[in-house]
Every structure is written in structure tokens, then in C-alpha cells.
Amino acid sequence: MIEQIIYTFVSSNLKKVRMNTFIMMWNPDISDWKMDGFESSLCHFNDVGVTWAIYDYKKAKIGDRFFMVRCGEGNTGIVMSGTISSKPYKDEDWSGKGREVYYVKLELGTMIHPDNEEIITTEELEEAIPNFDWRGGHSGRLLDKISAGKLELLWKAYINENEFMFEKGFANIDEWTENDAEEIIDYYLRKKHGETCECCGFNYKKVHGRQCKETIDYVRLDTTDYDDAEELEASYHALCPNCQRIINTEEDLERLKTDEATVEICGGMLAEKLIK
Ligand SMILES: [Zn+2]
User: Fold this and answer.
1) Residue 36 in contact with residue 99, Cβ under 8 Å?
2) 228: CA distance to ligand 1 center in Å?
3) Which domain holds residue 199?
4) Which of 151, 180, 209 lies at the terminal end of a domain, its last residue?
5) Is residue 1 domain-resident?
């Protein structure tokens, strides 16, 4: 019973996530940006910026994350990711219908040609995150943070599996922009799996109360590899600083988890140190 109550505190005290995630929609049949425009940007990847309509503009800021989904006819799914690089601003309606439309500038992290490379398809998106309309609707809708975490895991596993596509000219990546999304995954893992050390069971808030700002870390152990988002998620482990010092591999973790003496010493040492 007490465990459950403490867990509620932990969940409501999670680290803040700075970045919001927006889903941009692109239907080349309707948009004034056609496939040749996309291809030209792919060619001049490092020199171009893209401007896009954003529906939830009040929640958007510089540094936020975006994914662009091709919708309509043809191969549909994620064709682009990156970060928002301007404040939202009002401008003329691209469709000529005279609506109030806000735009943001996009800094490209990744572009993938939907007809020449495998992409994460609309069907895969619907299966992983069913509470969002991936087939159309307003461009630039905010994705909730849990779904954003799931999408980042899906995306990271996809990029890992398809890393060779970037050598063929139909896809491009800017690693620096892509690496920034770890905090979104971190938030998702904490929310879903909690903040208790997987090895020794230490939990800062259980020992020091809910006000404690310290937390365990979610770390990937270096020997692990993954083929899909599920395996990737399973490769992250919640570890306290003490356990991180003595655990370098999945094997270390498995061994120590079942070694009661080590678990007691490790968890106890840290608790003692912090109480002093
Ligand atoms: Zn620990």
C-alpha cells in the first residue's frame, strides 16, 4: 500500500521536459511544396531551411522538436524530423483561403525520400500511437509527451536499423540535431517505469521524501544492441549512481541483481551517505 502511495508522488514529481513535439503534415497533392521541392531540399540539405504552418502555435518555441508526415496518396509516413528554429509568426494563408495561419522555420535533422527509401509508415505510426490522427488534419499539432517518447524510441530504432541509407543520396541526417531528443525518451521512461534503481531498489524519494531533487538515471549499457523500439526501450536501465559505478554491461546487471549481499551493500551505502 505504502509503495503505491510513494509511487504516485514520484510520478507527479518527474523532471521537466523542455521540448515539445509537433507533427507537421505534408500532402504534396495539396501543398504548394511538391515532391521536386522536397528533392531539391534533400540535395541542398545543409543550406536550406523550410517554413511550415503550425496549428498549435501558442505552445511552440525555438528548440522544439518536429516530425513531418507525408499524407494523402503514395508512400505515407515520416519523411522529416528536426527542430523549430524561429518563433511562430502570422503570415498570408498558403492555401489562398484567407485563414489566420501561423508559421515556423524548421531546422532539418533528417530527410528521407518516401519513394526511394523505407520510411516509418502511417500504419506503423497508428499501431504505436493510436491516439493521434496520422492521416491528415491540421499541420503542426502538439503530440502529448508520452506519445512523443514512444515516437522517439521508434525513430531511434528506425535510424539505427537503416543507418546505411544515408550513404545513398535519398536520405540525409544531421546527427547533432537528432541527438537532442534524449530528454523526451528519458521523460517517457520515468513516467512508465518509475524512478527506482533496477539493481539495488534505491529510490531517492522513498529515502529523502518527495521534495528530493536527485533522481536515478536511465542508462543504456554499452554491450546492448537493438532491432526495434521494444528492444531499445528494454535496453535502458534505471540505475542509481552507486550501481552505475559497478555496472558496465547487461551481464553485470543480471549478476548483481541476483546477488543479495551486493544489493544490500550498494543500496545501504548510498542511503547512509546521503543521510549524513
Ligand atoms: Zn542502485
Assistant:
1) no
2) 27
3) 193-275
4) 180
5) no
The pTM assigned to this predicted structure is 0.86
Domain annotation covers residue 5? no
51 and 145 both lie in a single domain: yes
Q: Residue 176 and residue 109: Cα distance in Å, rounded?
A: 8
The total number of structural domains in the chain stands at 2
Residues 128-167: tens digit of each pLDDT: 999 999 999 999 999 999 999 999 999 999 999 998 999 9
Neighbours of ion ligand 1 (CB under 5 A): 197, 199-200, 202, 240, 243
pLDDT in tens, 199-244: 999 999 889 988 888 889 999 987 678 889 999 999 999 999 999 9
Find out whether 190 and 15 touch, Cβ atoms under 8 Å: yes
Q: Cell 505510426 sits at which residue? A: 125
Ligand 1 centre distance from Cα of residue 155 (Å): 29
Cα 222 to averaged position of ligand 1 atoms, centre (Å): 18
CA of 265 to the centre of ligand 1 (A): 10
Residues 144 and 117 in one domain: yes
160 and 226, same domain (yes or no)? no
Return the CATH number at 37: 3.10.590
The C-alpha cell at 268 is: 545501504
Residue 201: closest CA among 274, 272, 267? 267
What distance in angstroms lies between residue 243's CA and the mean position of ligand 1's atoms?
4
Burial class, 111, CB count within 10 angstroms (exposed 0-12 / middle 13-18 / buried 19+): buried
Kindly state whether residue 203 falls inside one of the protein's structural domains.
yes
Q: Is the model's pLDDT at 12 over the cut of 60? A: no
Percentage of residues in the chain having pLDDT higher than 90: 66
